[in-house]
């Protein structure tokens, strides 16, 4: 089944996200015959392009970033006929008539009312400006077939996120607003729901009685890569924890949904966020660690320190690494720690969730039987490999009773021949189809800001004195090891 006829207006049409992610994702969908039979994509930006030059520019992005780049049978040419460029300044209300003209023309051409999607891939300060200008467009908002997609960051703190929610809710119905978090479009992330709620095996032990603790790591090898101006106003906590990491935590920790209705799933996730124990500003140092990368050698090349990056203050106190210990105060998770960490310029690009079980209650083997005695674990690996692995103790072949840990692994690549779709493919398709399950509702966004505000405030009030405090290519600052070692655990790194 294909989505209904759609028009996509992409603000930030000459920007990086559109180039690297959105257009490649839309093209992949097209090649896989998942795009609507009739559609049109309009990139909106201030840079100067003719339609042809715009398409040439996007084709370069396809060649680099599309998983279907090898489609040499003219797919791009037919796809690109549906792509055009509107050059205008999004803050100038008088330019928006161009949008109305496009909609009217396409309505005539298609013979039906298409879905109209406004995708805001722009700097956060432009979101309210564009929303207000869109509000002036005649008739656009009377219908539920108009949707607005808002990229992260959604607000800069609780207050600004709340204000943005208010502003958007004055213009759109909640059902029309798609707050995107691309982690929710990743295959393994969605598979957490299947794993937990389509099997009878795991859910009975998915609680404080059997689970010792949970770890979430989202490490990156890249630095801020030319995004210094954005990152200076953000930092790791706002960039990754407030959204992606807390969403992963919700998927792992939520109660079983009664149905796959978008609101039901989002209710259950919001319950988790609301149950996260508030860290007081005074106790932040016991729960959260921040870091910033130094310069040095990494993967065979010299890399700059964060403070030397373009558009970064030479004495910047912005964190490029954050580790936090959370607790969820409910029946299922009381006193089970959730350790999360994320950072730039770390040892490897890896996103994984490790569920560590309690040890067997009695060890009835002789002490020397176990070479390494480790608890059972289930690890959801999201990047670089999408897989799920279960670790348990097994007997080593031989006459002696010797145990060692082994893995049972489900690998997407081995099991399914089709390539997993990119997160943005899934999410763009969902917007066209009107399925908001994998998008954030206003209360969810505010609830996650509430969780991290005390950390932000505590860090703001005490500038760091030890930055930079980790080497590029490492696993972050020493304090991060100490945070988890205090409770007798180690960070798990995947082989
Ligand atoms: C983005 C952050 O949301 O996620 C980036 O703004 C980060 O700083 C990126 O690099 C990571 O996404 P992924 O899909 O590569 O893990």
From TrEMBL:
Reaction(s) catalysed (UniProt annotation): D-glucose 6-phosphate + NADP(+) = 6-phospho-D-glucono-1,5-lactone + NADPH + H(+)
Single GO MF annotation: NADP binding
Transmembrane segments: none
Keyword Oxidoreductase: yes
Entry similarity comment: Belongs to the glucose-6-phosphate dehydrogenase family.
InterPro entries (alphabetical): G6P_DH, G6P_DH_AS, G6P_DH_C, G6P_DH_NAD-bd, NAD(P)-bd_dom_sf
Entry keyword set: Carbohydrate metabolism, Glucose metabolism, NADP, Oxidoreductase
Coiled-coil annotated residue ranges, if any: none
Pfam family, one: G6PD_C
Gene: zwf
GO biological process: glucose metabolic process; pentose-phosphate shunt, oxidative branch
Glucose-6-phosphate dehydrogenase C-terminal domain mapped to chain residues: 193-491
E.C. designation(s): 1.1.1.49
Protein's name according to its UniProt entry: Glucose-6-phosphate 1-dehydrogenase
Lineage: Bacteria, Pseudomonadati, Bacteroidota, Chitinophagia, Chitinophagales
């Amino acid at each position: 089944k294909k989505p209904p006829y759609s028009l996509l207006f992409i603000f930030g049409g000459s920007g990086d996200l559109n180039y690297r992610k959105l257009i490649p994702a839309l093209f992949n969908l097209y090649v896989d015959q998942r795009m609507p039979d009739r559609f049109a994509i309009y990139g909106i930006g201030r840079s100067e392009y003719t339609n042809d030059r715009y398409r040439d520019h996007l084709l370069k992005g396809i060649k680099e970033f599309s998983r279907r780049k090898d489609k040499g049978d003219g797919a791009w040419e037919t796809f690109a006929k549906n792509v055009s460029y509107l050059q205008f300044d999004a803050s100038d209300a008088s330019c928006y008539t161009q949008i109305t003209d496009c909609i009217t023309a396409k309505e005539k051409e298609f013979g039906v009312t298409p879905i109209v999607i406004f995708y805001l891939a722009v700097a956060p300060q432009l979101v309210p400006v564009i929303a207000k200008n869109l509000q002036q467009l005649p008739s656009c908002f009377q219908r539920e077939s108009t949707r607005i997609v808002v990229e992260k960051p959604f607000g800069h703190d609780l207050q600004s996120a709340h204000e943005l929610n208010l502003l958007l809710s004055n213009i759109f119905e909640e059902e029309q607003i798609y707050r995107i978090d691309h982690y929710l479009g990743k295959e393994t992330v969605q598979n957490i729901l299947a794993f937990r709620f389509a099997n009878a095996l795991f859910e009975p032990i998915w609680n404080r009685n059997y689970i010792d603790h949970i770890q979430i790591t989202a490490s990156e090898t890249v630095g801020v890569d030319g995004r210094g101006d954005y990152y200076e106003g953000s930092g790791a906590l706002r960039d990754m924890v407030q959204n992606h990491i807390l969403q992963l935590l919700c998927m792992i920790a939520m109660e079983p949904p009664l149905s796959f209705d978008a609101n039901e799933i989002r209710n259950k996730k919001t319950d988790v966020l609301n149950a996260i124990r508030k860290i007081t500003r005074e106790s932040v140092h016991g729960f959260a660690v921040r870091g910033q990368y130094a310069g040095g050698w990494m993967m065979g090349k010299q890399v700059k320190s964060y403070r030397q990056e373009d558009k970064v203050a030479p004495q910047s106190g912005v964190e490029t690494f954050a580790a936090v210990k959370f607790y969820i105060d409910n029946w299922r998770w009381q006193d089970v720690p959730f350790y999360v960490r994320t950072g730039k310029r770390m040892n490897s690009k890896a996103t994984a969730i490790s569920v560590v079980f309690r040890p067997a209650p009695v060890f009835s083997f002789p002490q020397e039987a176990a070479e390494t005695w480790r608890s059972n674990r289930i690890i959801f690996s999201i990047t670089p490999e999408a897989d799920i692995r279960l670790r348990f103790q097994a007997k080593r072949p031989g006459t002696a009773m010797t145990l060692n840990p082994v893995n049972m692994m489900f690998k997407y690549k081995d099991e399914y021949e089709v390539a997993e779709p990119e997160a943005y493919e899934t999410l763009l398709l969902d917007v066209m189809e009107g399925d908001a399950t994998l998008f954030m509702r206003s209360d969810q966004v505010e609830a996650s800001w509430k969780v991290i505000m005390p950390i932000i405030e505590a860090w703001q009030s005490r500038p760091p004195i030890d930055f930079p405090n980790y080497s590029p290519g490492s696993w972050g600052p020493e304090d991060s090891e100490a945070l988890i070692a205090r409770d007798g655990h180690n960070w798990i790194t995947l082989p």
